[in-house]
Amino acid sequence: MNKKIYLLVLIFSISITAQQAPASKQSKSILILNGTAHLGNGKVIENSAIGFKDGKLTLVADATTIRLQNGAYDITIDAKGKQVYPGFIAPNSTLGLVEIDAVKSSDDESEIGNMNPHVRSLIAYNAESKVIETVRPNGILIAQITPRGGRISGTSSVVQLDAWNWQDAVMKENDGIHLNFPVTFNQSGWWAEPGGITLNKDYAKQVDEIKTFLSDSKAYLGAASKDRNLIFESVKGLFDGSQTLFIHADNELQIVDAINLAKSNGVNKIVIVGGFEAYKVADILKENNVGVLLRRVHDMPEYDDQDVNLPYKMAKILTDKGIIVGLENSGAMERMNTRNLPFLAGTCAAYGLDKEQALQLITSNTAKLLGIDNLCGTLEEGKDATLFISEGDALDMRTNLIYNAFIQGRKLNLETHQTKLNAIYKEKYNQK
């Protein structure tokens, strides 16, 4: 191809796929009136008044019980007949770490090595990812960006999904370290034709390696050393309580061993990620104040003798046991499927939880487990004005239709690459 033509094609390609400009900082105060506000803490205000200024919520009240002065807010949005929600939170996500799986240079979700607590996902986060803009129209406005691979994958951070770069996006830096606990057995085959199950003969050895790493780190941090060890230093937050240990484990034995191992080494802030068999050890979870980020509930049971609807019921079972439960969406095409997070919560509502409890799975509960509940997760005065207005029930794919969304008070552009293409081809074929 002629170099000039190639350059023009490249420039054109960049221009049509460029990132949307993030919204400007909130300059005018906004009042949302008459909508049904789902606060994210189990409460609902049928006729609400939600006000925010300078990126923070300044008013959350029943509109029928208050009196506002004329001009108290610069802009008023009438949300009569609409639903108002806090922004949804996607934990254990690789949004912004991979753009195209088949393009190696756009894949930055893992590092070589086995013990990588010092690897920080935040600095690899690409705020300009085209995938990010596709999740916001379903209400996902916050995500925990989490590395993959190895025994200890690295350190995650929490970001808001409307920014020029990771420095602008970060809400909580280095919130936790992610440990992939050894599996107790291995299964051959694949999902459509599963093979046999064999015990992991190296399980005890692999658990001992984690135990040794934690004890060595603790010893290093507790004594002066001439030689610096950045890997050991990076886990300091696990021992002083400033970071959470996110343990990725599904099996009953894995979960019990992981909790005992962490506790015996002085790690007290623990969250189980995945937790397929967490319901079997709910009492241990409750006793140790351990929450669970349930893996994608749109799934099948692991064993032939399990209830076919078990994945859908897990959130209800654990909630009834007093466990703080959130939802994560790891698995096949995790980034693309992040947009479906609200509908996972909707399924949990269809199988036992009431709608407000299901909403908490992706708002206040997840905020608590990530340690950001002082900033978001509920509609409360003083918290970030990260919220959206939906035409209907945001947990139902038939009525989840968002027409206004705000992150820290900034009004978002909800256009995506797909909506632009939709408009183009509607015009081409003269459709309304």
TrEMBL record:
Transmembrane segments: none annotated. It comes from the Bacteria. One of its GO terms (molecular function) is hydrolase activity, acting on carbon-nitrogen (but not peptide) bonds. InterPro entries: Amidohydro-rel (IPR006680), Metal-dep_hydrolase_composite (IPR011059), Metal_Hydrolase (IPR032466), Metallo-dep_Hydrolase (IPR051781). Residues 1-20 form the signal peptide. Keywords: Signal. Residues 341-396 form the Amidohydrolase-related domain. This is Amidohydrolase family protein. It comes from Flavobacterium muglaense.
